[in-house]
């Protein structure tokens, strides 16, 4: 009887230790996900839904952002992080009475050059951003090539907090002569808290100011996500809501939604140069 009890206690302690180790590993991955320039290959698939688009509020929009993030070691001290966003859009009446539209929107390719170690506790990255006119229909893209600088800066604490901002500015370089030129600033301040059990709570905004038109698009997003493993595959699942504080006449209004599935590949970190 005593021997059986000893075995039960031993196995219980072993399972508890394994569980705590797993939580710690998941929490570390979850924290890295809050850092846009982390040394972590990840592949988010981000679904978004927006409603009440166009001046008549008769439009809806669903889109999936395909967002691979790939860090590449370029020296002993520096990394280059490639962040790509390719939207696949399904829209109804993006302008009044325009009907159903489905296809690709424009691709945004950003390259961040970031030191491997924080600078005085601050993590940062800077580089170029390039918009590629991959829109397959006129109402789904701008028809313009555009480029400009991009910057991210953040602070991460031992207690699980991450606070920072990501920004870029794009000027049009060419493309369809019949389309409006681009001159716009994107700003994404964010704050996130990750628990020891790998739950992350995030609040951010994703504002875009259109200088030529004098318009602003300003949604606030609140998200909850959980990092875990399914078999051997590390993954993160998240969801949340957004509220449109301000918008152009053609933009969405009121409440929107977001759901994200992210595949994580910690074994694929950038190799040392």
From TrEMBL:
<keyword id="KW-0732">Signal</keyword>
<protein>
    <submittedName>
        <fullName>Transporter</fullName>
    </submittedName>
</protein>
<feature type="signal peptide">
    <location>
        <begin position="1"/>
        <end position="24"/>
    </location>
</feature>
């Amino acid at each position: 009887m005593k021997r059986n009890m000893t075995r039960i206690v031993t196995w219980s302690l072993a399972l508890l230790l394994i569980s705590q180790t797993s939580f710690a590993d998941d929490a570390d991955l979850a924290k890295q996900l809050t850092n846009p320039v982390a040394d972590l290959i990840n592949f988010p698939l981000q679904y978004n839904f927006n409603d009440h688009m166009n001046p008549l509020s008769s439009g809806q929009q669903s889109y999936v952002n395909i967002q691979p993030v790939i860090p590449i070691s370029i020296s002993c001290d520096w990394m280059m992080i490639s962040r790509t966003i390719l939207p696949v859009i399904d829209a109804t009446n993006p302008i009044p009475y325009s009907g159903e539209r489905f296809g690709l929107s424009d691709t945004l390719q950003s390259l961040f050059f970031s030191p491997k170690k924080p600078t005085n506790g601050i993590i940062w990255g800077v580089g170029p951003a390039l918009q590629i006119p991959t829109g397959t229909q006129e109402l789904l893209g701008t028809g313009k090539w555009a480029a400009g600088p991009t910057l991210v800066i953040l602070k991460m604490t031992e207690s699980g907090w991450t606070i920072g901002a990501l920004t870029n500015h794009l000027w049009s370089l060419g493309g369809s002569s019949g389309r409006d030129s681009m001159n716009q600033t994107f700003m994404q301040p964010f704050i996130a808290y990750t628990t020891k059990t790998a739950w992350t709570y995030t609040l951010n905004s994703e504002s875009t100011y259109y200088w030529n038109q004098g318009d602003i698009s300003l949604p606030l997003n609140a998200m909850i996500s959980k990092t875990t493993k399914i078999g051997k595959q590390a993954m993160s699942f998240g969801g949340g809501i957004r509220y449109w504080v301000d918008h152009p006449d053609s933009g969405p209004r009121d409440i929107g939604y977001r759901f994200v599935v992210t595949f994580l590949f910690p074994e694929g970190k950038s190799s040392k140069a």
